[in-house]
Amino acid sequence: MRFLTGNLLGNNPLKSNPVWARQWQAFRSNRRGYWSLWIFLTLFVLTLGAELIANEKPLLVSYDGDLYVPVLNSYPETTFGGFFESEANYRDPVVAELINEKGWMLWPLIRFSYNTINYDLDVPAPAPPSAENWLGTDDQGRDILAGLIYGFRISVLFGLMLTILSSIAGIVVGAVQGYYGGKLDLFGQRFIEIWSSMPQLFLIIIISSFVLPSFWSLLIIMLLFSWMTLVDLVRAEFLRCRNMDYVRSANAMGVKAPVIMFRHMLPNAMVATLTFLPFILNSAVVTLTSLDFIGFGLPPDAPSLGRLVGQGKANLHAPWIGISVFATLTLMLTLLVYIGEAIRDAFDTRKFLQ
Amino acid sequence: MSLLSIRGLTIQFGDQTAVDNMELQLEAGRMLALVGESGSGKSLTALSLLDLLPESAHWSADSMSLGDQDLLKLDHKQKRTLRGGRIGMIFQEPLTALNPLHTVEKQISEALFIHQGMSQTRARERCLELLKQVELPATAEMLRRYPHQLSGGQRQRVMIAMALANDPEILIADEPTTALDVTVQETILTLIKRLQQELGLSILLISHDLGVVSRFADDIIVMNKGKRVEAGPTHEVLAHPQEDYTRHLLDSEPRGRMPALAADSPELLLASDIEVTFKGKRSRLFQPPPLFKAVDNISLSLRKGETLGIVGESGSGKSTLALALLRLIGSRGSVTLDGTELHTLSQGQLRPWRRRMQVVFQDPYGSLNPRMTVGQIIAEGLAVHEPSMPRAVRDERVSELLKEVDLPPQTRNRYPHEFSGGQRQRIAIARALILNPDLLILDEPTSALDRSVQFQILELLKTLQQRHGLSYLFISHDLKVIRAICHRVMVMKDGKVVEEGDVQAIFDAPSQAYTQKLIAAAFA
């Protein structure tokens, strides 16, 4: 981990491993990809702490000389001298007044969570952008910006998980098929052909009608169909490599098959794989968004970009909804493609050392 | 006035000068050879004549003329009529230079259609005529064949027929025989020479092989690193070389013989009745596929410190034999190393024995993983067989090996593509040696290299053998190399052993007709 951060900071490219240093150098020389990475990482890290940026609870409350952290803990209203035993609603003017009398509140930048309904709107929801709701609200009075921040986080996390898991599965299957060839390859390919001809969307719709859709069940269902993208690529690369003299040399050396696959053949398949990764990530995000859009995705109370797209479609007279989601999705997908391109170029030893 | 004249030709790639102030005169009806090692700019010089240089190249010339035509002033259309019209070209690798989807007739007549606008029937007549000229059977059946149905030599003849189609004045032959077997090489060159004399062609022969040149070319230009080193009539240049570089080239022909082996040297490897069969293509769905014996009942033995040469033309099964000995492909028979039968062992049981027999392959570009550093490549054997070895010791050992093959130890962290062919072959040898093997199987280790580099690698192999008492199984199609490095030699043809014996005996008095033919072609 230490060398990874060292690499990322760029000031101390690992001296003991010039390979990494060179690839990092090559990645940096691609300005577009480099800056895309930074922008994306910044956005991702910021949204990881979404609760600290957009929340209906204050970050810190000082009341009567004591400090409270409502973001982490739940305090009943009675703590602050209120009437109810239920959790304090800090947005309630009565509660706010009670606290402000004997202390202060530190609010996050945006005083709404993704599901906070703003009851104090001057106009009927959906409300246009204002000083309070920077990007306006949806038709139920929920803040768009907060929704985008939480939606971005869940989309990227879901996409990353799906990409990593389906890549691992695809690479393993492709590698085994390509390396051993023969009957295993033959039957494997036929299975994939049959499996991939199943109508994915309908199956997901059917399955989600009797399995309660959640983050994890949706991930598993989508994984069942997305692992095949990389198989053909990796398999082709392995078929090409397995007759190379350096693979034969390794065999003659007594290197075990998994090691040969991992050390000699996989790096060669890596460029093709990495080229596809951002696209897999993109398509995972897009699939999740579209499932949410048609209502078969994440549970209805989860923050999601797809639901916001749906809001945008339902409220064409409130263009700030559609435009905001569109801009967010475009930005996210574009950044990912630029990063992917830069990674691909950096891993191609032949290209950057010419 | 010479037919073709180039003055002050300079070709640059970026800020690297590939050809520097080159000068060339080709007289009518003569054969001029451009000789040099790979990267000396000889092919580029020829390509500049046809304006076929890669786009990244920048070139300029003081003058370039063919007959009374100034080649520098031609427009695109005129240049096209030049290519395949007044100048014909033969490439090195006939398999890739011919379109695999076109028949022989289509390949040859294409140039006729383009340059002369001939009718189909006229073109066919001309094709047959050309086939006769290049000594191929002039039949309709031949015209219908595809490149994959032809042998290497036949393909090269088709290439020559294509180049001759429009009665060119000049034929450029870029390493026309490098990819061919020795005996075929001989016939192709004889054909080119005959055509030169019969048709009054001027030929620009590009070659790295001084042996070829000395027998066929009238004049010679020696090139080194883009510069013209020496030029003149062939016999003069070869008999009295003026420049060091020419002498160096002449000196790098493999010479000498190996000293006799100590008589009490113990036997290391014994292989008997090795047989490898491949399945052919089934003719019908449920019929068993026909079997093809690539290696047919071959037995051999090798003593400690001995080099056994295996000679044969392409397709004789010599590389397959090597793979069978290494158990990298399935085979029947028995292989004993130091008294232990290896053929009955499972791959897992075989693993400890693998470190004792290592292999070096022909293609220095394909045998090193392009995505691993040299250090990783060389250390791989240690990682497998001595996983507990500390990293520092392993690095030390890699540096030692690099020094042993005359490469600087700092090169550990570089990638294979930064090295030349000869250096890569040294890396491959270092990788094979790191486990201190007893036996090294060398599968055409020098065939892809220039003569002078070849010479260095052979010297290195000899030194290593003496230092470590290694046994070599040296596979090659090059009899000169075999004679220089082997104690014993085995001649293979069609998977069978034709003749076997001491190098001395075989080369001085070959008893089989096939061996005699091979030796005659190689040492003509």
Question: How many angstroms does the end-to-end distance of chain A come to?
Answer: 30 Å
| Helix content bin of chain B | 25-40%
- Beta-sheet strand percentage of chain A? under 5%
Strand order of the largest sheet of chain B: 7-8-9-3-10-11
Coarse structural class of chain A: mainly alpha
**Helix-strand string of chain A:** HHHHEEHEHHHHHHHHHH
Cα gyration radius of chain A (Å): 25 Å
Question: Mean of residue pLDDT of chain A?
Answer: 83
Measured by DSSP, the beta-strand proportion of chain B falls in 25-35%
Distance between the termini of chain B: 34 Å
For the report, how would you describe the main beta sheet of chain A? 3 strands, antiparallel
Radius of gyration of chain B: 25 Å
Q: Could you list the spans of chain B in which at least 5 consecutive residues all have pLDDT below 50? A: none
What oligomeric state do these chains adopt?
Answer: heterodimer
Give the overall shape of chain B. globular
In DSSP terms (H or I, runs of 4 or more residues), the helix count of chain B works out at: 20
Walk me through what this model shows.
The complex is a heterodimer of chains A (354) and B (524). With 354 residues, chain A is mainly α. In chain A, 65% of the residues lie in helices and 3% in strands. In chain A, a hairpin with a 2-residue loop joins strand 1 and strand 2. In chain A, helix 6 runs parallel beside helix 9 and helix 6 (144-180) packs antiparallel against helix 12. The longest helix of chain A is centred in the last third of the chain and has 38 residues, at 257-294. By secondary structure, chain B is α/β, with parallel strands linked by helices. Chain B is 38% helix and 25% strand. Chain B contains 20 helices and 21 strands. In chain B, strand 1 and strand 2 (16-26) form a beta hairpin. The interface between A and B is medium-sized, with 23 and 35 residues.
